[in-house]
């Protein structure tokens, strides 16, 4: 087998730690291994944090970066079941995890792009548990966005089956990152009314183009949670909030949610707003709501999500700028500067 180029992390001192090397894959497959020709990858804020050594994230030496990708199966090990050469697949971040078992931070810290070689390479050998079949009808670029952001959004919306959005419900999504944009697309497909937030008029236009019923500018209106509540038909508030900011957005999420509504906490993108009190568990009582921590999703949920994508013919939104394999440093910088809309994607092959 020929050497396969790959982007590795030599260290965790920032984007300069990313290096392009010739990395020779193991020519023989283990019993449960699958050789994949990767065609596209996408980036997450986790990838930035790993490159910078933030949040005490530790890598395996010279690990291949990034967790999200899509490609074609080329060969399979003798004990592999459910996959065969020619299958189109997406990566699942956490290999060797039971299909129905919730993912923890410890699991993710052992996952692709951190302790296990990731997707920024042209050929990759994965354990079969790190792969799921792609939804039909998607390009490799679109499918490469599903591993982290889409699965997190799916879990946030549908992880509690009894509280999943339906026709007549109102869902609030925050910002224009990968989780929020695909959550908007999923919620619309379920028949919900969607309120979105952004600080950019240009991005607001894109949100409207995707189908958002209302878009609030959170810089011009710091009380966007209260404004969202007033946009609901009965003025009681939204049924479900997909919160990506954590401390920076929790207070307004609580203002927006209706009694017996759900706030799905999916991210920690911001610190606490200035001159504000931190929210506590008592706020759940005061606002009569459920606040739920959401971290990725199970492999079974991934399969359910892919069926939903096929059924509703959803095409995941990607940023209009797509990077080449030689432009990984630029792609990371583009995401770091928050110039993207939804997902930053890379053509690998």
TrEMBL record:
InterPro entries: ADH-like_C, ADH-like_N, ER, GroES-like_sf, NAD(P)-bd_dom_sf, Zinc_ADH-like. Residues 14-346 form the Enoyl reductase (ER) domain. Pfam families: ADH_N, ADH_zinc_N. One of its GO terms (molecular function) is oxidoreductase activity. Signal peptide: none annotated. This is Alcohol dehydrogenase.
